[in-house]
Amino acid sequence: DRLKEFVKNLNGEIIILLTTSEYMYQIIIDDNGINSMFEIKLDEEEIYDWINKNSTILEVKDRNEYELFELVKPSKNQIESKNEIDNKTQIRLNITNSSKNINIFRSFNNSFFPHNFYKDEIGDFLSLKQPLTLNFSIDESYSKDLNISNNIGLWAPCESNDYTINMLYSRIEGFHEKNKIKLNSITSVLPTEKLLNDIAVVITHGSSNIDETNKVYFVEDDLQIELTNILKGNKVIILFVCHSGKQSLSDYSYGVDSIIKNLLKNQTKAIIAPCWPLSIDIAFFYYKMFVEKLYQNLSLGDIHFQIMKEMSERNINPAVWGNLHYYGNPNIYVE
């Protein structure tokens, strides 16, 4: 009964993915309890170290914001990338209710695969059909709607004179000034204060092994720092940090290495992060739409879903619209 109530409060269904060397077992739980279980035949290459093995096809070749989002029809690069990723993403899940949130929980040996790229039975990306989120654990508060304050704090170590960080920060700052939206920002390299806002945004760099180091960096890796030195008590975190959504099988424990997993252990309820290198044009496009939609009485899960949909209508390349992934509670509303 507690499980049924938990799923009912989620306004969605839970999909549990258990993986062996040859098969994936999908268990669907809705507000009636365990609905069904499916067996999915797997090629090990489909899940093991997927992002590292496919890093080439995840490279975004569009050079600027115009090429990314303003072309009248898809470019040759977009079409080629879409076809390549389509061919490499063949894990198809069975969905019983196409109108509700999908909340995925999965075994550690399935952790390499980006959850935005799961498909439905007919081969369409699930993340473009309904809100989709990945979780690492279940707690009592997770299934309840959560209201947070509409205040955004941002850390970008601009004083390091890192060109990329400064470029994205200046565009975001200009957006806030133009729309007269308050922004609490910290630009020092080693802040003496922490971001305490309900919504925290981080702009810096992450290496391809950030899942192992749990550290971000700036100025060509000269200085590394743990985000716990910057963040405190934030309910939602947006990481404009390359690779920060990536997960891998731990070499030292029976589990998953992930900066996301560690941040969700604290008071944070949801995180949005990229699983491979992130263009500042994609980050700025996402940020503008995110802030604008905060005033539309939508859950954050719905906001993320709508942004991905709109992004995919402007650029068909899954490496573009599918890079930023949602983790945690989708039922968060901003007051």
Based on secondary structure, the structural category is alpha/beta
In terms of DSSP E residues, the strand content is: 15-25%
Helix percent reads: 25-40%
Number of strands: 17
Helix and strand string, N-terminal first? HEEEHHHEEEEHEEHEEEEEHEHHHEE
Q: Per the principal axes of the C-alpha atoms, what is the gross shape?
A: globular
The largest sheet is: 6 strands, mixed
Q: Mean pLDDT, rounded to whole units?
A: 89
Radius of gyration: 19 Å
User: Which stretches are low in confidence, meaning pLDDT under 50 for 5 or more residues running?
Assistant: none
Number of helices: 10
Intertermini distance? 31 Å
Strand order of the largest sheet: 8-7-9-12-15-16
